[in-house]
Design a protein that fits this description.
- With 483 residues, the chain is mainly alpha-helical.
- The protein has 21 helices and 5 strands.
- Strands 3-2-1-4-5 form a 5-stranded parallel beta sheet, sandwiched between helices.
- β2, α2 and β3 form a beta-alpha-beta unit.
- The protein binds flavin-adenine dinucleotide.
- Flavin-adenine dinucleotide binds next to α9, α11, α14 and α16.
Length: 483
């Protein structure tokens, strides 16, 4: 009787390095069947958006190539996880299914269903094992003294650290025993994850290298070039001062434990004692905090954590929403951010906060509209981080910015893009304007506009709202929440 194979079910862990499920499967010595299942139905409206699909395609192609170097092929299957995984396990007589844990409510349900089907007494029993890896620490291991979830970041950060260092990353397997039986697999191309007509992904290809090697290279570049300047530079969208690891982390092309320990050993090896390291690790832990919130409050993507915000009098304004989405609001820092997002699938964190505040508080549009747009257009779209961040800006989430703190797009632009370089890059029709007018071009003298080739209302939109008026309206709306 040939040895029964083990299925390694890849999910948001598209890597070979520090992959506990794969390492454990390899350690048994059994033949390994690596699979990926494209499940478009279970996630409902939160199935991956167009930008995420682009990334997924390339990440799966990279993983397939990496597995091929071990003599394995990645089996790609389409359908509901809860049907496809147990069916395959039965077909090939698998001894077990090993996988990394995921945290979206529908993914948690899928894990349980697969477990229940394969472990109940019946014609086929398989061992179902779930491994950590997507987070530094498991959400259940971090709780308040009373055993409740944290809703404030700083005590969460402290609690995460109290439990000791996150576990050390595991090495890549040296050798993986392939399963000899030929299995049916879909062809990645047939999943049509890439845009075809039109192909809008040119800017994505220029910006990113999806896959594990791309992720590790990105981490190294960040450590070498930007970690020491991170504390001062992380708010500057005109500089390459953040890691841009978010899509790699979302797809699990590298683990947060790898990021954590690599950053620490890089700093220790250089004798670096500045605060860039801690500030960076704290940002990484915002990702953990968001996952913690989603696990404990699965309604996070759809409903405000502070329920009284359901009373907020949002405006239905399709023209304004469209102008925001397309980067044509007439506010240069907002438009630059929205165009960077459209072109590259990513936006700098400071600018995400500015554009989100603008949508919610200047246009009075429901934060969920912005959340959905980001979901479709971000390559790092992540259910937990996206929902938690939108709620944070809206003032209705955990440890949120107070609602009455309303970003002024002109002063934010002048402070964080002081020379206007970020705006010039993404809003080229304003490139000729001097820095002092670039964040409020409608205030520039006529002669200056003429010299720079800018005609407000023609070459660049007139502001679609008056910020001072909008601010008053937003605060008036907030009164309804309070009462
Ligand atoms: C409205 C809004 C929506 C957002 N949506 C997402 C999203 O869908 N996916 C996502 O990964 N991040 C989201 N963020 C958080 C943050 O903007 C990005 O994680 C960050 O810009 C990614 O760039 P980076 O990798 O260069 O970050 P760095 O500054 O290098 O930080 C390192 C890592 O820490 C994590 N991180 C940093 N800041 C945050 C944060 N505020 N919240 C959660 N994790 C953080 C990310 O994994 C990031 O890769 C959102 C923020 C806002 C304001």
């Amino acid at each position: 009787m040939p040895e029964r194979p083990l299925i390694v079910w890849f999910r948001q862990d598209l890597r070979l390095f520090d992959n506990a499920a794969l390492t454990a499967a390899v350690a048994t010595g059994a033949p390994v069947v690596p699979i990926y299942v494209l499940d478009e139905a279970s996630a409902g409206k939160w199935q991956p958006g167009a930008a995420s699909q682009w990334w997924l395609h390339h990440s799966l192609a990279a993983l397939s190539a990496d597995l091929a170097s071990y003599g394995l092929s990645l089996h790609m299957l389409r359908g509901r996880h809860i049907e496809v995984v147990p069916r395959l396990a039965r077909e090939i007589g698998a001894a077990g299914v090993y996988f990394s844990r995921a945290y979206e409510p529908w993914a948690v349900a899928a894990e349980k269903a697969v477990h229940d089907q394969l472990t109940q007494a019946g014609d086929h029993q398989a061992e179902v094992r779930r491994f950590p890896g997507f987070l530094l620490k498991e959400p259940e291991d971090i709780a308040t003294k009373e055993g409740n979830p944290y809703k404030v970041y700083t005590p969460f950060w402290r609690a995460l650290n109290l439990g000791g260092e996150p576990r050390k990353p595991l090495p890549r397997p040296q050798k993986i025993t392939p399963h000899r039986q030929k299995l049916k697999s879909d062809n990645l191309k047939d999943w049509n994850l890439l845009p075809a007509k039109p192909d809008w992904a040119g800017g994505f290809r220029e910006t990113w290298v999806p896959g594990e090697q791309g992720a590790l290279d990105r981490l190294e570049t960040f450590l070498e070039n930007a970690l020491t300047g991170y504390a001062g530079g992380r708010d500057r969208p005109d500089r390459e001062s953040t890691s841009r690891l978010s899509p790699h982390l979302h797809f699990g092309e590298l683990s947060p434990a790898t990021v954590w320990h690599s950053a620490k050993s890089w700093a220790a090896g250089r004798g670096y004692e500045g605060n860039g390291l801690e500030v960076f690790l704290k940002e990484l832990v915002w990702r953990e905090f968001s996952a913690h919130l989603l696990i404990h409050f699965p309604g996070l993507p759809d409903s405000p954590l502070r329920a009284e915000f359901e009373r907020y009098p949002w405006h239905d304004d399709n023209a304004a929403l469209h102008a925001w989405q397309k980067g044509r609001t007439g506010f240069p820092i907002v438009d630059a951010g929205m165009r960077q997002l459209w072109h590259t699938g990513w936006m700098h964190n400071r600018v995400r906060m500015i554009v989100a505040s603008f949508l919610i508080k200047d246009l009075l549009i429901d934060w969920r509209e912005g959340e959905h747009w980001f979901w479709d257009t971000l390559v790092d779209a992540d259910l937990a981080s996206n929902a938690a961040s939108w709620q944070w800006v809206a003032g209705c989430g955990a440890d949120a910015a107070p609602y009455f703190r309303i970003f002024n797009p002109m002063t934010q632009g002048a402070k964080f893009d002081p020379d206007g370089e970020y705006v010039r890059r993404w809003v080229p029709e304003l490139a000729g304007l001097p820095a002092r007018y670039i964040h409020a071009p409608w205030q520039a003298p006529q002669a200056e506009l003429a010299r720079s080739g800018v005609v407000i209302g023609e070459t660049y939109p007139r502001p679609i709202v008056d910020h001072a008026e909008a601010r008053k309206r937003a605060l008036a709306g907030y009164e309804q929440v309070k009462n």
